[in-house]
Design goal:
The chain is an alpha/beta fold. It has three domains: about 1-150 and about 300-305, no CATH class; about 150-275, 60s Ribosomal Protein L30, Chain: A; about 315-490, fumarase. Helix content is about 35%, strand content about 25%. α2 runs antiparallel to α3 (about 40-60) and α11 (about 345-355) crosses α12 (about 395-405). It is globular.
């Protein structure tokens, strides 16, 4: 009988979460490189180049691909003939592995899990608990899949109970444009159909860990209804023109997964889950012979790319004026240097609450730019760990009071802004730029100094001051209110010209 020892399981889980923090799956790299080579949109091509360069840097440096090192998820298929040498539950075993991985001193990962989610929302400190799913199956081995899912893509998970006669394709094409770029395309979409609501969501989550193979499927042709849907949705979702980082382009998804399950005659549950540009998962099997050994990919799996910054404009954040800001246009590429503040959800709420009470802020925001980020802790000689952008729309409700009452000049984040935030940017002649989601380690290399200025108790959400040198960004909303996330996808959907505009249901 196979005996799975406690320490073998825990060590395997810990090693796997460390592994996926800095290694992309090779199938993702292959398909992203193929998409990069055929991309015609300069903005999307540049975004994909940054993701690929960042990925290689993370692999070489053994540091996280993305600062959002995710919610830890484990799928376990345990053979019914296995005996466990432990007094812990499977969830406790997984949690101990996660704890070790996320507090590893050589590569600490960001602890994003918060207890008391509708109350004090305090960090658990080690990213536990994980979300663990277990199946008992025949056999004498234990198969484990670990995944780290970032908040940007998780927040765009969709579920609906459609009528039996409703079109799945129409529903997907109405939903994907509403997801915007918060989920950091190009990535993967996983669609599940049938079962019950909870079964449907779980099927979609499980299927997104399968290998990317849409090109092989296109070559041999579909054999099932699910495979027909995969090909149809792959073509039509890409024809929406959303493109890498929502900037407009030929590739929004690298693959589409479709999974079906029998369902009630009156029902058609559907779940649509995205996996982002920081796709992270690893598979291993335990057979009682010791901890799993994960084979690092060869560096030959990464293309050697050099970023082209020749068309970027250099900007000094310490001397920037409103007149200079007014000269920039949506889509311009900038290289930021100087002092850059950081702050995200929790910090913005405190700022707005203090403004409402008439209190003096601990940091003068006048004439400054603020970067929506929550970096990973630094190690060794680093100034800061990976520090990519977080989803900007979560700060939309704070934009008007902050711009109106503090004199803030600009913001840097990820993906599009909503109409109210865009109007506030226009009204105050401010600027909103994006950094590339999924290029956190690359971005961190432009940060030359870092210090906490306020709200230290918020941990990674504290207000910091970065000293940056040539940090690459794109103007997403200019001082006139023109938004590249509107114009880019509209232009490329028209260029592709395969499907009409579809509005959300």
């Amino acid at each position: 009988m196979t005996v799975i020892r406690e320490q073998d399981f825990i060590q395997s889980v810990a090693d796997a979460f460390q592994f996926i923090s800095y290694y992309h799956p090779e199938d993702y790299l292959r398909d992203l490189w193929e998409a990069y080579q055929r991309e015609e949109s300069p903005a999307a091509k540049d975004a994909m180049a940054q993701i690929l360069v960042n990925s290689r840097m993370a692999a070489e440096g053994h540091r996280p691909i993305c600062q959002d090192t995710g919610i830890a998820i484990a799928f376990i298929r345990a053979g019914m003939d296995v005996r466990w040498d432990t007094r812990l539950s499977l969830e406790e075993l997984v949690n101990e592995g996660v704890r070790r991985a996320y507090t590893d001193p050589d590569n600490p990962l960001r602890a994003s899990m918060l207890a008391d989610p509708d109350g004090k929302r305090r960090s658990t400190g080690d990213n536990t608990p994980a979300v663990t799913h277990v199946e008992l199956v025949p056999g004498d081995k234990v198969e484990v899949i670990v995944a780290a899912k970032g908040g940007g893509s998780e927040n765009k998970s969709k579920f609906a109970m459609l009528l039996p006669s409703d079109s799945i394709v129409d529903w997907v094409l109405s939903i994907v444009p509403t997801m915007g770029a918060d989920w950091c395309p190009p990535g993967l979409l996983s669609l599940a159909i049938g079962g019950s609501p909870e079964k449907c969501m779980l099927m979609a989550k499980w299927a997104m860990m399968e290998p990317m193979n849409i090109h092989q499927l296109k070559a041999r042709g579909p054999k099932t209804r699910e495979e027909e849907l995969r090909l149809e949705l792959y073509e039509k979702v890409n024809a929406l023109g959303i493109g890498a980082q929502g900037l407009g382009g030929l590739t929004t998804v690298l693959d589409v997964k479709v999974t079906g399950f029998p369902t009630h005659a009156a029902s058609k549950p559907v779940a649509l889950l995205p996996n982002c540009a920081a796709t992270r998962h690893a598979h291993f099997v335990l057979d009682g012979s010791g901890p799993a050994k994960l084979e690092p990919p060869s560096l030959d799996a990464w293309p050697r790319l050099a970023l082209d910054l020749s068309t970027s404009k250099r900007v000094n954040l310490d001397t920037i004026t409103k007149e200079e800001i007014a000269s920039f246009k949506a889509g311009d590429r900038l290289l930021l240097s100087g002092k850059l503040l950081t702050g995200r959800d929790a910090a913005h709420k405190r700022i707005v609450d203090m403004l409402a009470r008439g209190e003096k802020l601990p940091v003068d925001l006048a004439g400054r730019f603020i970067y929506y980020t929550g970096p990973v802790d630094a190690v060794r000689d680093e100034v800061v760990g990976p520090a990519g952008p977080t989803t900007s729309s979560r700060m939309d409700k704070f934009v008007e009071p902050v711009l109106a009452q503090t004199g803030l000049f600009g913001m840097v984040g990820k993906s599009e802004r909503g109409p109210l935030a865009t109007e506030s940017i226009r009204k105050h002649g401010a600027l909103y730029c994006i950094a590339v989601g999924g290029a956190a380690y690359l971005v961190s290399k432009s940060i030359r100094a870092s210090r906490v200025l306020a709200f230290e108790d918020l941990g990674m959400e504290a207000i910091r001051e970065f000293e940056v040198k040539d940090m690459p960004v794109i103007v997403a909303v200019d001082a006139k209110g023109d938004a590249v996330h509107r114009s880019g996808p509209a232009e490329w959907r028209a260029r592709i010209g395969k499907i009409p505009v579809v509005t959300a249901a």
